[in-house]
Specification:
Order of helices and strands: HHHHHHH
Pfam family, one: PMEI
Keywords: Signal
Number of strands: 0
Domain Pectinesterase inhibitor: 34-177
Structural class: mainly alpha
Number of helices: 7
Organism: Rehmannia glutinosa
Signal peptide: 1-25
Radius of gyration: 17 Å
Length: 187
């Protein structure tokens, strides 16, 4: 039985996690204006504009972005970190298991998240080369991992569940950024 409150609580905890990993660097006012313009161009095009603003403004890897390229690098860094944390959770959860079949499924999911880390890393490298279509495909490939693992193991550990919620938002933001870069190049 799913409780709406439990889902909200997991989302709240995930967002709180994002807030706690930030630093308190101050930005000069001109940088704030250009950053706000970049955010206001991207966030309304995402599935969750308010969460997009929270993520982008509160993380040091995206907070000072002056353009979509910088924002793309930052959001991919965040996605890579989140995916790596899922790798660790699946690995340590598998170590504690006695059921060989279930343990194997967890290790398989760990490998899938390692694949996602690789895809996101490639997307970041490809983004530097302005190959936006290929970068978008890498992001889409990585975004399928949480879905695949959930189908394979059912309900994931709470740490992974909350990380998946955050990853879903981050994948959406990254996809929008790369799509905007492609549109701007073609216009």
């Amino acid at each position: 039985m799913k409780l709406p409150f439990a889902s909200f609580l997991i989302l709240y905890i995930s967002l709180l996690f994002l807030l706690t990993i930030t630093t308190n660097a101050k930005l000069i006012s001109t940088n704030i204006k250009s950053t706000d313009k970049v955010f206001s161009n991207i966030c309304p095009k995402t599935k969750q504009p308010n969460i997009c603003l929270i993520v982008l403004k509160d993380d040091s890897r995206t907070r000072g972005a002056a353009n979509n390229h910088e924002l793309g690098y930052g959001i991919l860094d965040i996605a890579i970190s989140q995916a790596k944390s899922c790798v660790d959770v699946f690995f340590y959860s598998a170590l504690k298991m006695n059921d060989g079949d279930r343990k194997e499924k967890y290790l398989d999911c760990r490998d899938k998240y390692n694949f996602a880390v690789g895809q996101l890393s490639e997307a970041k490298t490809i983004l530097r080369k302005n190959d936006f279509a290929t970068a978008r495909r890498r992001i889409v490939d990585a975004s399928q991992v949480p879905i695949s693992c959930q189908k394979e193991i059912g309900e994931p550990p709470v740490e992974v569940r909350s990380a998946n919620i955050v990853l879903d938002f981050i994948f959406d933001i990254a996809y929008v950024i790369v799509r905007e870069l492609a549109i701007n190049r073609n216009s």
